[in-house]
Amino acid sequence: MGLDHPASKPHERLGALLADEMAAVNALIRERMASEHAPRIPEVSAHLIEAGGKRLRPMLTLAAARMCGYEGPYHVHLAATVEFIHTATLLHDDVVDESGQRRGRPTANLLWDNKSSVLVGDYLFARSFQLMVETGSLRVLDILSNAAATIAEGEVLQLTAARDLRTDEAIYLKVVRGKTAALFSAATEVGGVIAGMGEDAVRALYTYGDALGISFQIVDDLLDFEGDSASTGKNVGDDFRERKLTLPLIKAVAKADAEERAFWARTIEKGDQREGDLEQALALMDKHAALSDTRADALGWAETAKEALTHLPEHEIRDMLRDLADYVVARIN
After folding, report:
1. Is pLDDT of 233 > 60?
2. Mean pLDDT for the chain overall
3. CATH superfamily of domain region 10-332
4. 3-class SS letters over the chain
5. pLDDT score, position 226
6. Between 71 and 109, where is the model more confident?
7. By the 8 A CB rule, do 181 and 147 touch?
8. Which of 86, 303, 109, 108 has the alpha carbon at shortest distance from 211?
9. By mean pLDDT, which of 17-26, 260-269, 301-310 is the weakest?
10. Residue 255 contacts by C-beta under 8 Å, 6 or more apart in sequence?
11. 220: closest CA among 113, 332, 307?
């Protein structure tokens, strides 16, 4: 989901406040994605890293560390680590999904090839672990390595669950924690750990990132069915056409009668989609209040994120993080 919106943009205010540290992160990223022996590595990684993303995940690490009073150098290493993990997963995802476009540009696997994308992704994962180790914190290494494993686990789970009508909300949540929330929560948690915060504060940072990431993904899934194509960059109903069981569909399937379930089995499990099926799917979601219930879930997770912040020190960054949670759900209010 993009964060562009005509309303005030808390991530831009956060970026302005952390501009010097983000510049240091970007310099470290460029330094560590270099390769003396394989020039294709910086070519492929730069194509994605320099593509104009919001750098939200590394910004969360810097924000958490600053809010918790950290003054050392290693939050920059951790922010670069988070961005490398994120970039590596995107390179791998585009191969798995056979994607041709990301952030409005051709994907690396399209411009080069699948082998290059996978291997450069592996290189960035390796670089991320080198950066983690340099902090000298086993706790940080534990958090970020667990996040990397959770991301991979979530992607594999999605392969089996995406088109299986037995997929329920609990499985969906595991997938979302893997594909989105795991890196958000790790990004905020390590900021508190490197600052030496107590367990209550570190847990609150984890909860904030986890809830923010879940809300972020639910909003993305909801906007697939009721968003504006110009702002989302996706056609309405793309997830349905690609037979992805996201939360609105899961909620509709859970309340389906026998005839409706047969419709979902034909269109999602078997992939037999016909003209008018998207309209029928939207009608069934409306009948069972699936979209409004999904909206309520997204708003609920945003509230969970904001509540977690009450356990953290008073700081202007805390207010920006609260605004960020509201901003993520602004387009569905």
Report:
1. no
2. 88
3. Farnesyl Diphosphate Synthase (1.10.600.10)
4. CCCCCCCCCHHHHHHHHCHHHHHHHHHHHHHHCCCCCCCHHHHHHHHHHCCCCCCHHHHHHHHHHHHCCCCCCHHHHHHHHHHHHHHHHHHHHHHHCCCCEECCEECHHHHCCHHHHHHHHHHHHHHHHHHHHHCCCHHHHHHHHHHHHHHHHHHHHHHHHCCCCCCCHHHHHHHHHHHHHHHHHHHHHHHHHHCCCCHHHHHHHHHHHHHHHHHHHHHHHHHHHHCCHHHHCCCCCHHHHCCCCCHHHHHHHHCCCHHHHHHHHHHHHCCCCCCCHHHHHHHHHHHCCHHHHHHHHHHHHHHHHHHHHCCCCCCHHHHHHHHHHHHHCHHHC
5. 85
6. 71
7. no
8. 303
9. 17-26
10. 288, 290
11. 332
Residue 175 has pLDDT above 60, yes or no: yes
- Residue 4 pLDDT > 70: no
Mean pLDDT value of segment 98-127? 75
Q: Would you state the structure tokens that stand for residue 114, as one six-digit string?
A: 């699948």
Q: What are the backbone dihedrals phi and psi of residue 105, each rounded to the nearest 5 degrees, phi first?
A: -130, 155
Q: Token digits for 199? A: 């367990």
- Span 61-84, mean pLDDT? 93
Q: What is the pLDDT of residues 269-296, one digit of tens each?
A: 999 999 999 999 999 999 999 999 999 9
The pLDDT of 139-154, averaged and rounded, is 93
CA gap 220, 329 in Å, rounded: 10
Other CB atoms within 10 A of residue 102 CB: 21
Q: pLDDT class for 7, splitting at 50, 70, 90?
A: very low
211 by Cβ neighbours in 10 Å (0-12 / 13-18 / 19+) ranks as: buried
Q: Given CA atoms 284, 326, 309, 186 in this order, what sign does their dihedral have?
A: positive
Whole-prediction pTM value?
0.90
Domain ranges, ordered by start, for the chain:
10-332
Tokens read off for 239: 């997830």
